[in-house]
Design a protein that fits this description.
Pfam families: LssY_C (PF14067). The chain is α+β, with helices and mostly antiparallel strands. 34% of the residues lie in helices and 26% in strands. It has two domains: 62 residues; 212 residues, no CATH class. Strands 3, 4, 7, 8, 9, 10, 11, 14 and 15 form a nine-stranded mixed sheet that branches. Strands 1-2 form a two-stranded antiparallel ribbon.
Length: 302
């Protein structure tokens, strides 16, 4: 009788036990339970305060939306959401966020230059000043081209770059895309090597998150339209851009993002090659007539 084949070690190492990690988990859970208890005390005490109950209701919503539910999701998603790449970014609470629907070949200098020349604006970092400015701009319907975007996480870190295009001077509506630099030696499922992956969606309005009740942007469900818009702006601005489309990179699906908004996609992943664009410009070849680069299609292995 032959010996059974031993399974290879998983690509993603399991989390090792340590006293510090165990204590961190204990206090993490305790903080979540304490936040739930605080919210319970506020809502029960509110009934004996008359008109002050309105203030208590607001306090209850703030604690529930910005303390209790995020903490609860953070605890639960540690258990059921994979930590490896599955084609979805994650919110700061651990929820599945926007799908990865774009990849890029090129350096950071090439990417930032091409995005700027294609009409995209670099988003501000989230600070107290930028947060207040986007709140006031949204309420007063004032333009804020550099409005920050919320952090989404991939490869264990938030986005490296974020760009947007405001629509009709209204910060509540905007095209936006987040970029993450890929780790050294990392490849997409199927063995495709890229330098950046990105998630692009269109903000259509401001509303409440279905999962945390926080105030957030609501996105359009058809994320493929936004994906194609991003690619189209780059191709229109730079004739040397090459596109390789990985068909069926992921199975076409209907789902929800981290704010509870419906999303659907055909599962195709365009890979935008920017490496020839800047090289051609540096060689003073930009003035020459260049035919539009063809679109190449590959079959995904998902």
């Amino acid at each position: 009788m032959t010996e059974p084949i031993k399974r290879r070690d998983p690509l993603v190492p399991r989390r090792r036990f340590s006293v510090n990690a165990a204590l961190d988990d204990v206090f993490f859970v305790f903080a979540g339970l304490a936040a739930i208890w605080l919210a319970y005390l506020i809502i029960t005490e509110a009934f004996s305060w008359g008109w002050w109950a309105i203030g208590f209701a607001v306090a209850f919503w703030l604690i529930l939306a910005y303390l209790v539910l995020p903490r609860l999701h953070s605890i639960l998603t540690r258990i059921y959401v994979p930590s490896y790449f599955i084609g979805r970014a994650r919110t700061s609470d651990g929820l599945l966020g926007d799908p990865v629907n774009l990849a890029v070949l090129g350096t950071e200098e090439q990417l930032t230059r091409c995005m700027a020349e294609a009409g995209w604006t670099r988003a501000d970092d989230i600070t107290a000043a930028s947060t207040w400015r986007i709140v006031s701009s949204t309420m007063l319907r004032r333009s804020y081209d550099e409005a920050p975007v919320s952090p989404l996480f991939l490869f264990g870190r938030r986005q490296d770059l974020a760009y947007q295009q405001e629509v009709e001077g209204n910060p509540a509506k905007r095209h936006h895309v987040r970029f993450w630099r890929c780790p050294d030696g990392w490849m997409l499922p199927g063995g495709h090597r890229v330098d950046w992956v990105a998630a692009g969606t269109f903000d259509r309005a401001v509303g409440f998150s279905l999962f945390t009740l926080q105030i957030t942007h609501k996105i359009d469900a058809d994320i493929d339209i936004e994906r194609d818009h991003i690619v189209g702006t780059l191709r229109e601005a730079h004739t040397g851009v090459r596109i390789v489309i990985i068909r069926d990179f992921s199975t076409g699906y209907h789902s929800r993002n981290g704010g509870g908004d419906s999303i659907h996609t055909d599962g195709d992943l365009p890979v935008v090659d920017l490496r020839r664009v800047v090289q051609a410009r540096s060689a003073d070849a930009a003035e020459e007539a260049v035919e539009e680069a063809p679109v190449t299609e590959l079959r995904g292995l998902s």
